[in-house]
Amino acid sequence: MMHWIILPVVLPAMLAPLIGFVMRHDITLARAASVAGTALLAAIAVGLVMLAADGQTHIYRLGDWPAPFGIVLVLDRLSALMVLLTSILALIALIHAIATGWDARGRHFHALFQFQLMGICGAFLTGDVFNLFVFFEVLLIASYGLMIHSGGRERMRAGLQYVVMNLAGSTLFLFALGTLYASTGTLNIADLAVRVAEIPAEEAALVRVAATLLMIVFAVKAALFPVQFWLPATYANAPAPVAALFAIMTKVGAYAILRVHTISFGPGIPGTDGLVASLLFPAAIVTIAVGAFGVLGARRLMGLIAFSVVGSMGTLLVAVAAFSPVATTAALYYMIHSTFAAACLFLVADLIVTQRNSDSLQPVPATVQNGLFAALFFAAAIAMAGMPPLSGFLGKLLVLDALRAPGEMPWAWSAILIGSLLTIVGFARAGSALFWKSTAIPVLTPEPTDEEEGAPVRQARAGALQVAPTMLALAALAGLAIFAGPVAAYLEDTSGQLFDRDGYVSAVLDPVPGEED
Amino acid sequence: MSHAGHLLFIIALLPFIGALVPGLMIRAGRTASAFFTAAPTALALVMLMILAPAVLRGEVIQAEIEWLPQLGLSASFFLDGLGLLFAGMILGMGLLITLYARFYLSSADPMGQFYTYLLLFQGAMLGIVISDNILLLLIFWELTSLSSFLLIGYWKHLPEGRQGARMALAVTGAGGLAMIGGMLLLGDIAGSYNLTDILQAGEAIRASEWYLPALILILLGAFTKSAQFPFHFWLPHAMAAPTPVSAYLHSATMVKAGVFLMARMWPVLAGTDAWFYIVATTGLVTMVLGALIALFKDDLKALLAFSTVSHLGLLTMLLGFGTEAAAVAAVFHIINHLTFKAALFMTAGIVDHETHTRDIKRLGGLRHLMPVTFLIGTVAALSMAGIPLFNGFLSKEMMLEEASHTDWFGSHYAVPVLATLGALLSVAYSFRFVAHVFLGPQRDDYPHTPHDPPFGMWAAPALLATLVIAIGVAPFLAEGIVTAAANAVTGADLHPHLKIWHGVTPALWMSVIAVAGGALLLMLHRPLDKGWIAAPRPEAKAIFDRLVAGIVALSRGITDSTHNGAISRYLAIFTVTAVALGYIAYAGSGLSAPTRDMLPVPPVIAVGWIMLIVSTISVVGMHHHRFRALVLIGIIGLSISAGFVYLSAPDLALTQISVETVTIMLLLLALHFLPKLTPKESSTGLKMRDGLIGLAAGGGVGALAYAFLMRDIDTISGFHVANSYEGGGGTNVVNVILVDFRGYDTYGEIIVLGIAGLLIYALMHALLDGPSARRLKNTDYSEDRSRDRHPLMMVVVTRVLMPIAMVVGLYIFLRGHNQPGGGFVAGLVVAIALLMQYMASGFAWTQERKRIEYHTLIGLGVVIAGLTGAGAWLAGQPFLTSAFTYIHLPPIEEFELATAMLFDLGVFLTVLGAVMLMLYSLSRIARFAGQTVNEGPMDYDPGEAAKDRDTED
Fold this sequence. Notes:
heterodimer, A: mainly alpha, two-stranded antiparallel ribbon, 71% helix, B: mainly alpha, two-stranded antiparallel sheet, 39 helices, 4 strands
């Protein structure tokens, strides 16, 4: 019996209450436990990736009930990859939170953080749509807690938008699940694939509605037009390490679309074939535009980054909407890339905002370490805008290369390329105002009137530990570019496995006795 | 891979590897920094020279490493004649610029940074010219845009530098993005992204229907990079960069990347009408226009910038002609332009450096003060003018020769006349550069008294000027490399002979006209200049700035008007989307025939249904009055519970009732601190809109529910019913589903509840630490307060109810597995019992009597549930596998012990803890808001009063 598969859920779920209830009076203890737990999670995730690399779909039957009657966890290359991505990102965000002291600015940061990880990992591993709903709830409530961590007027306002929009999404999720269960009689993703395929194309109205509503629910998470409105304010106002962690949250939505709409309602299923793709594609195109305009029009640094996240989700979902193995490979590569790129930007922006005491894009006198921050921001912006040498350029090329169907190419290519241009110009304007124009403003150093008082207060410099997470994220982006070949090979296998519906279904529904984990 | 291939790799990598070193070495001094910039460049140059003989013999050196085979991207390089020519120029100029910059930059400039950027650029540029993969070429292409951005903005405190950098990035970046599209199309047509393969596939590519789009997109990249009309305007503004950058990037190398690309793609793309008319025409227009503007520029660097634009136009035009002879001329002119233009830029830099001005109108007469500079500048300028015995003459003659027999839309004269005009203007501005800067009377109002710079500063331009004369006098010196490069461009086996004297050809006459006309134009410069200044002409920068400002304003407009923070609007859009897309999905297919009949509706149910509807409508109508709305919500909840009872779902009903009770109680407590009325904010129109949306959504959900309730479906619940007792050990299938079949869901949901408790606690702290704490403290709640807050009756009743409620809770908990009930409901019932104590006697009094912390309760609950699940591991079973057994203890009946019970205990504790933590948080707020704490259990305690009486007595 292989219990590794459930550990990414159980480990944070057990650790979180310990941190939240036993260690809540000692931040150092909580930090140590949180870091240790996250590092362990990363180690487990590496193990899972290695386990999944054999190409088998591994099943974990909770309560030992057979699918589709009980809940199963499904570990394949895709879910292993997502868990690994989550854990590495979490480690980066966590170190930043600790190094900058964000975690101590409110209550229960580490407990909520671990719960959040539990929710995300649970969503990636589950093979059951209702269970997916449950983990959406876990990660929603935990993320809301993290988002409003340390309070403040603007943050609370944005947090309310976030939670209200996502609760509306949850409600719709329930409607969708109700319709789905009432029209197919099951909630297991593999079983759904079987039963939906049995519905004749002319009697599929209900299941089509369910598939569409589910897509909207996932689109809310993935910040797809026209349900993306909550994201910019939320990300811009969330504590930076939380915003960095949230880079994976939008991917939960994208992952869910990939998983559910490929396997249960995907290509070749008569009742629902092409339905979601036809809705997703134009929405993703508009999302790119929304993101690009937002970047160019931004007045605040955090807002700019948040809109660039929206744009990157558009690019990602354009590729997802093709529902083909090649495009999915591209989408997955771009997904890994954009996760780290967004996180990196939020982290470096946090350092900058801390120094400047403001995240407006108006120039203020240059701060200490102007050059260092400029370099970090430049690198992160290059990544996000999809310029070489970091992985964004390769990701963009992969996506463009994958979208060659006559109906999609003109739209997708124009949107992605023009969107890139606007993003580049937006980032260049922001960087120029932040780091270049600021050097033209004379620093008003107050004359020390009294010798006793000594020199004026120096701005605190960002220490090595504070810069390290940003560097780590950049290193991840560089590594992703350098090792693009092996990574893409893994992703090719991943999307191959994802599109092998029969393989998934038979692994879940009739595992060979003695071989199930 | 061959030895030569390895060398090629090292050449490509050296600048990048070396890039960080000068940035660090600046700590050892400026000379050290310059030296460590020169070192990798020189090393690469030496390696290139080692490879050169083979390439000149016609060999092509290749090296390849796989990078991203899925995309067809490989790190493959090849060196042919064209690549060798450009690589040599890049590295050779790199060395000269390094030397020049060492003396040009002042001590205030961060030189290490400069050299780092320079090497990055060098590596990127080198990559472009030796890439054997067009995707790799794109990568280097974009890298030159980025490094150029950094170098133009090097003097970051100057607005011109920042604006010029952004403009260059925007224009060349846009071109680069277009080129991505073009290259992807090209690769698709050719079936490979390898240049070597693409160069073989010329026929197929020109025949493809995608040829024209690919051509236009690639040319957009080339034209923007090489500053061709109408994208030429960024180049003069890039002159805000330090002069070494202008000399290196913006005259010698980077701006030639576009020309290089056209030359590289020449065998594939050239030779069609489209190519000729687009490329040759653009080049011709750019050449004339650039030369014309250059003549009237007073800024030395601007003059040179526009002359560069003009010469790039010349090169573009030659490549556009599509003939082999024109290609030879282009290759030769690339070399010549590099030598004289870089020398001129450095001269301009020296003049600027020495006199502190670049304004031609403030200069003149420098020949005696700066004789060396004068000499270098004059040699270079005469070459630019195309005077015999200087190298510029040779390639210009070849250009005019080609132009003289080129037809353009049937006209024999258009191209030769315009080409001559371009040459004429070129002569004029070249002469002006010499005449207005160095000749004329010496002045006494230079901003700074000039003299010749140190040797290190004029060494580089002097070397270039020597080359100008050497090639001009002995053109055969360049024959080898020109042949190699031209053969690489054309793919033919040419043997051009570079000669000074071609006899009396039309080109010679055109040259004579150009020189004479140019000299005449210079004499007329003063009146012409007045006319030029007076004439209205479009200012490219203003147009560009307006364009960017317009797009930014548009972006702001779109973003601000859509993302305005109005939740109601976001929700309206969300709902409309759901309804509309749901309808589209529905309309795309049909329904199966209904298999069920409508059930009869008894009158009681009809009344309940109407009540439910009326209360719901009333909530909409009365929601401004929050207290009433809350009461109505309570009614709705209870009606739904009744519905569950009617529809034989006792578990749901029980849960719903307890949840309703707890929720309403907590909301009541919370409402105390909130305004009692919701302000009226929506206009009538908005209300109508929202009403319609609400009706549509509600109708949609109702229709959906009706549709599926009328149809039978085979569900998995049959398995649950069948296995509940056998496998789960319980007869209440709902409970067994909750704690066993889908215990994992429940595990997730109690965690949600636990997090909610934590969250409310954290929120409460944020609230009390935040600015709203003041408002809370200053609000007067006395109006709301009852005079009888803890009435005797209530205290007594709740005390009596407490043990009963506890027993009921325990009972519900224990019977849950087989009868309606379970840990969740039990937790709520006990929570209600405790809640009542708090309400009756106040928080402080009750708080003193509790033994266990709520935080711990939640934690314990979650941990117990988790441990129960993990306990199955010990038995080798998956998480949450249940076990149960029946125990018979003599005095009592046989009963069941199930691990699911333990799990349910976790549920119970979490629910209880979460509710109590919420209550605790509310009461913290209450006490903060100034609510008094009562010492005793009730307002009037008869027992205390009796005691008092006793003591008095």
